[in-house]
């Protein structure tokens, strides 16, 4: 996942190892990988700790960046989509984790699919020269849970396969881990049909920001509608609000998507603040 453009905009950038917020709006400066300039960290200790996991991806990021520079002139729409998607993907990490991956992959629960499946989010991209708000240029088209094994069979030569093992090997490498999530974010340029992707592999779920215990929280069966509604908001709230919204949606989902969205739209600041306290 690219965080370079997002960080340049002065927003919150997450450490790739511990998920701590860094950047101008925090007391912690952002340290980027000197090779790919994409992976971000809160300090040298986290960077060294994460190197074994990041090493293969780093090479892939450098290769993709070189290819991007070579095609910048020949395929300007593809390049514009690529840059915009990296910026957008970095800005919706918490949103995708709390409102999408948590219920879709049953994070933190015994039946978790985190080591065998990933969440794929496909967005339609339509540049709007009259706005700088990246959220207004991407519209969620589909949200699907896909197994790593099926994806490997369907796309054996895809770039992500170079550093993403299938479900069987993932479970062998990380036994018992059920609170991380992998998310594929794809963008499709409406005018040209160009497609590009950003893959977030094994993002650690920030349980300290979640208001209830993951293993005891119900699954929001209307998570697709909830995520689509959230992404349609012009401005994203703080991360802790996403967590509260997921908990409330899980309590309301028996009434269907309409009941969930009605409840979420009626949330007030006082209730959000009260729910944030564990």
From TrEMBL:
* Domain MYND-type: from-to ranges: 15-58
Q: Which InterPro entries match?
A: Znf_MYND (IPR002893)
UniProt-listed Pfam families: zf-MYND
Q: What are the alphabetically sorted keywords of the record? A: Metal-binding, Zinc, Zinc-finger
Give a yes or no for keyword Zinc in this entry.
yes
Molecular function (GO) terms listed? zinc ion binding
- The protein in question is named MYND-type domain-containing protein
Q: What is the lineage of its organism?
A: Eukaryota, Fungi, Dikarya, Basidiomycota, Pucciniomycotina
């Amino acid at each position: 996942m690219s965080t370079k453009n997002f960080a340049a905009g002065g927003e919150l950038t997450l450490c790739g190892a511990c998920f701590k917020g860094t950047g101008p709006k925090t007391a912690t400066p952002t340290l980027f990988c000197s090779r790919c300039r994409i992976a971000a960290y809160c300090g040298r200790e986290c960077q060294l700790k994460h190197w074994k996991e990041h090493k293969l991806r780093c090479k892939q990021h450098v290769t993709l960046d070189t290819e991007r520079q070579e095609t910048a002139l020949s395929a300007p729409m593809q390049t514009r989509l690529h840059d915009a998607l990296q910026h957008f993907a970095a800005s919706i990490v918490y949103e995708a984790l709390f409102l999408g991956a948590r219920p879709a992959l049953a994070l933190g629960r015994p039946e978790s699919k985190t080591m065998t499946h990933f969440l794929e989010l496909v967005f339609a991209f339509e540049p709007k020269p009259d706005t700088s708000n990246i959220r207004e240029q991407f519209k969620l088209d589909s949200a699907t849970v896909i197994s790593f094994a099926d994806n490997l069979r369907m796309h054996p030569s895809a770039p992500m396969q170079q550093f993403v093992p299938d479900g069987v090997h993932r479970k062998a490498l990380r036994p018992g881990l059920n609170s991380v999530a992998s998310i594929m974010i794809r963008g499709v340029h409406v005018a040209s049909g160009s497609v590009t992707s950003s893959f977030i592999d094994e993002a650690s779920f920030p349980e300290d920001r979640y208001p209830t215990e993951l293993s005891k929280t119900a699954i929001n069966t209307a998570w697709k509608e909830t995520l689509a509604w959230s992404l349609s908001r012009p401005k994203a709230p703080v991360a802790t609000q996403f967590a509260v919204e997921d908990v409330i949606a899980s309590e309301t989902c028996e009434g269907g998507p309409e009941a969930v969205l009605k409840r979420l739209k009626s949330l007030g600041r006082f209730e959000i603040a009260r729910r944030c306290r564990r």
